[in-house]
Amino acid sequence: MYALRLLPLARPAHRVLSPHHATRSLSARASRVLSALDLPTDGSLIPGMYDGQWGGSGAVQKSICPATGEVIGQVQTANVEETQRAIQATKGASILLRRMPGPQRGEVMRQIREALGAKTAALGDLVSLEMGKIRSEGKGEVQEFVDICDYATGLSRSMAGRVLPSERPEHVIYEIPNPLGVVGILSAFNFPVAVYGWNLAIAMITGNSTIWKPSPTTPLCAIAVTRLIQPVLERNGLPGAVAALVCGDVAVGKEIVGSSDVDMVSFTGSEKIGKEVGKVVQDRFGKALLELGGNNAVIVDKDADLQMALQAVIFAAVGTAGQRCTSTRRLYLHRSISAQFISMLLKYYDSASSQTTLKAGDPLDDASLIGPLHTSGAVKLYEDALAGIQKRGGKVLTKRSGKMDVGMGGNFVWPTIVRPTNDDPCWTTETFAPILSVAEFDTLEEAIHLNNAVPQGLSASLFTTNIQSMGKWLGPEGADCGIVNINVGTSGAEIGAGFGGNKSTGWGRESGGDAWKQYVRWSAATVNYSSKMPLAQGVSFGV
Ligand code: NAD
């Protein structure tokens, strides 16, 4: 195995840790981003586990830049025993945290917000470098973390239980929220910072410690975030395991999911893995919060403002190269405006190249709007999906599809519009790539039926100017998703509302709204301040 000497934070980031690994020099592009966060630029091994101490002696994970294929970092992950140790440390830390008054936890959260705020641009660039989303989206993702810290700080003084009237004289009923203990956070590659942020902020403010297993392909984002949080915890006399980190792959994830010392597992990822995770957590009667795949539709009705719809669809279908859980994958067009709207879309899609308005290229270049897919495996899934649609009789409507050469290697593909056959399986599955499937409808009822006729239930949007259609869309006969928008695209939610989806998207809610209520154990407490012992419902039990 690899010889690892740990890297204390105070050491210069470029220090050579292991002669076997410290032989490479990075591109100036990657070095600039990593140095801004004090991450090594010489290929030395980076400890990928933190439970108060940095360490890790599991397998080495390579972080690969999706835009260039360059190895930008090597991370020594946690092994199974170390994961168990970290879980125990997190459990111990939860006892200290739950004793801390909520508003004091709020003050710690405010300081975390400041630490993140000071590095928003640098961290955003790391998201772009490691995940591949464009610069403004990388920064936007960190901003979401900052925003949820603000929200959580406020929540620290307002998380309210309830006082309820009792039917018995001189009795009162309270509903009381208390911390759960340990929240395990398993996150997906496509939001390597924000998803953790939503969970950390709400879990911590409600008095829980956390243990985070990030995606195996975005360990550097996780390490950088944890390094920003670490000094804040230390300054406030809190153990590091209040926000533990275990980089690793499936085995590490399974340790967390299966551990009865992890009171709640907040899992963000695919439906396939989420189903497994949900069953394992259920089997031990733990709590699971599942945020799984989406298959999101936009409906453009005959009375829609087409220019607005166009902007929204392009951002949600092409943005993040189709790699948001909320990306638009299905587009239902009223027959009367369909041809016009498709030609408006194609004007943009067919102009997309490294030279034109919908510019594809280095996500770190401010002018780029289309970045790469995250891995070469994702390119293959994109290609297979397109081949399958065409084999089954569907058509590609865009001039170009397939791999795109922007002159820097990487996993770039052409955003593609397709017209699959009506019964094509692509309508009901999430392909995590910029493929937009189009079909027509004649009535709003039919469009709503099409929107709802898939297993997933994350996000849906209706473009209309008709108030009756709006009412229908939002009501009991309307869209069945967790996010139901009008004249706003399917992606780009704000943190104020609860975020999550229904059906096979997992029914979880994170972030704002009432999401915090899932991170606590609720007790209903009836208190008798009389000198009698009456029973509820007038029951008489003559003693
Ligand atoms: P994924 O399911 O492949 O992996 C998610 C996480 O699970 C990773 O950390 C992975 O290492 C871990 N994992 C894999 N097998 C495991 C197991 N058996 N036990 C425990 N952990 C295991 O997902 P991904 O490819 O990283 O992310 C893309 C998916 O995430 C898409 O389906 C997307 O829609 C979804 N997503 C959903 C939301 C949401 O809020 N609904 C947000 C972001 C992403």
From TrEMBL:
The keyword Cell cycle does not apply. Its EC number is 1.2.1.3. It comes from the Eukaryota. GO terms for molecular function: aldehyde dehydrogenase (NAD+) activity. Residues 61-522 form the Aldehyde dehydrogenase domain. InterPro entries: Ald_DH/histidinol_DH, Ald_DH_C, Ald_DH_CS_GLU, Ald_DH_N, Aldehyde_DH_dom, ALDH7A1-like. Keywords: NAD, Oxidoreductase. The active site is at 291. This is aldehyde dehydrogenase (NAD(+)).
